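PROTEIN ENTRY
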Amino acid sequence: MSGFMTAAAAASAALFFVLWWMLQGEENPWIPAGLAASVVMLVAASAWLAVVRRSRVRHVRDSGEWRGHPRPRSSGNAIPSTSRHSAALRALHKQSMAADAREVSPQAHRELYDLCSDYLSGTDQALQAPSLPTETRLALRAGQERVRTLQRHHLLTWARGSARSLTHEAQRRVRLYEKVETANRALECIDTALRVYPDEEELRISARAVRDFITSSRVAHWVELAERAAFKGYYRRAIDRYRDALFYLTRDGADQDRETGAERITREIELLRARLATQRAPIDSPGANSKKAPK
């Protein structure tokens, strides 16, 4: 590296004198020449620092001193010894307790779920070794049971927290498509957890609640459009909007609340049809309610 910097200094000095000679006819020619030479030295120094930093990182990683999270690797190093197994297990428990105590973001629980998955994958690989001592094998299996419990806890916590956060965000949205899009992201989180734990009733209840929110948002949107159209005298248009609301209300099954809402919408449609039958003006004109005075 010293040779590199020496060459850079020589090139910088050469550039300075060449520019100084070329700019003899200008006032203070040494100023632009000095600036150009300084730029060359800065670029060379930056390149040298980047190379040194990269070499240092590579050296530390190759020497085994580089550390991130204590994360067992599923593809490479299985956990062959009781001591390494115990250390990895303690690290997982420590991070799990810290996450629960600090009430971290849902994404932190998802990362812990991934750590548990890596641990289980690594221990599965270690258990395939035929020469593994019985004591170590039993310890690995016991550790796997404990980690599976942690894995379930953190995936459910992630799904529950993410769904709650996204649903609250959807409620604050103004436009319908934004509400539905954000709520569907909450459903994706729940469905991800359901694919792993399909018998988890809490997840099913959460999914139903999010779907009910999407349905109610769509129904409220179309009902509002129908009421606006009816207020302006566009009765046919209002009937079509009420039908759209009725479609979303009855599409996903029926319960007491939906049946009550469907009855109310049906009554509104019947009232609008009665108005259409008695009016003489064009159907979709603002003056549909008024009759022409006889001449």
Notes: Confidence is low (pLDDT under 50) at residues 60-79, 287-295.
